[in-house]
Amino acid sequence: MAQQRRPGRAATSLRRSTTPEERMLWLLTAASVVIVVGIGAFPQNVPLVTLLLPMLLGSLNLSPRHLPWFVVSLLVALVGLLAQQSAEERLTERVVGGVAVIFVAAFIILVTSFRRTRLGVAGMQGESMLIDLRDRIQRQSVLPALPATYGAETALRSAGGTPFAGDFILGARPAGTDRFEVVVVDVSGKGEGAGTRALLLAGALGGLLGAVPPEQLLPAANTFLVRQDWEEGFATAIHLSLDLGSGRYAVRNAGHPPAAHRAAGSGKWDLRSEPGPALGLLDGVDFPSVEGELRPGDALLLYTDGMVESRDREIGLGIDRLVGKTDQLLRGDFEGGAERLVDSLGSRNDDRALVLLHRR
């Protein structure tokens, strides 16, 4: 009885040791054999271009380690099929056209495979990784829950409408405190080009935000960026630390557009930050803070330069326009205000991010 169980256990162990990609390779190989046999047995009914099906499926599911050999084996099988045909059959327009299409497609797939070698994963796996990175960036923009007396909204748009942006927002409520912290960051570059750098910096800032005292956040982020030595190695940021009990806040700025504070009593917007150097340019620099108080009915705006700067408008004029348009668009109703502002203002050719915080 024991001897009868061993083969079953060995087979189970073999199935468990086989990776999904290897199973896919065997499946595509079996399908290719069926297609090759079908073409050889029924050349009039099964066209040569049918070989493109396993080739394309392989480009989506096989890694650069297996894909070139799989494509080359299909081309060898194609040459073998042609060798079995007579000269009159091989030189027809239909056959020549089909063979040309297959070789051109194989060349494109091989070139794409060689470009993926640096990543080392198949096409669909690479897309899954990018989707996961995109989702992580988007989840980081979700602010933590605040008391009922406060409201906070965020809005984020990337240049060209792509899901990857150089602008990002992080928020945190440190455990054991009554403090709310949020940072708005603009990494140099736009769209996908800045997305990878933004993700790296977001991971570093996400670990620091709420874990270090507010006055140490921007200096620590600056030190991190200086060490990276990126070709486009700078970013601008604005950091808000708010005491939810008293409404007192401190704003620290690293080369970023200033925060705007709307006082309910006067209805006017005041710019509330003293600019410091951008992150990643100089080591050992300080970032001055500007303090204030958020009273009931007041609001704060944090935003990136994509909201106020464009090719035909300087940033100073853009800030004036933002402040002027905000009252017209919100009219004292802050609910959904962040989305309204981002959709109505700013440059479509630049990443845009905005945080609207108000006290009820």
Automatic annotation (TrEMBL):
Gene3D superfamilies for the chain: PPM-type phosphatase domain
Entry EC number(s): 3.1.3.16
Entry's transmembrane regions: 25-46, 66-83, 95-114
Entry keyword Transmembrane helix: yes
GO MF, one annotated term: protein serine/threonine phosphatase activity
Pfam families xrefs: SpoIIE
Stretches assigned to the PPM-type phosphatase domain: 149-359
Keyword terms: Hydrolase, Membrane, Transmembrane, Transmembrane helix
InterPro entries: Bact_Sigma-Reg, PPM-type-like_dom_sf, PPM-type_phosphatase-like_dom
Name of this protein: PP2C family protein-serine/threonine phosphatase
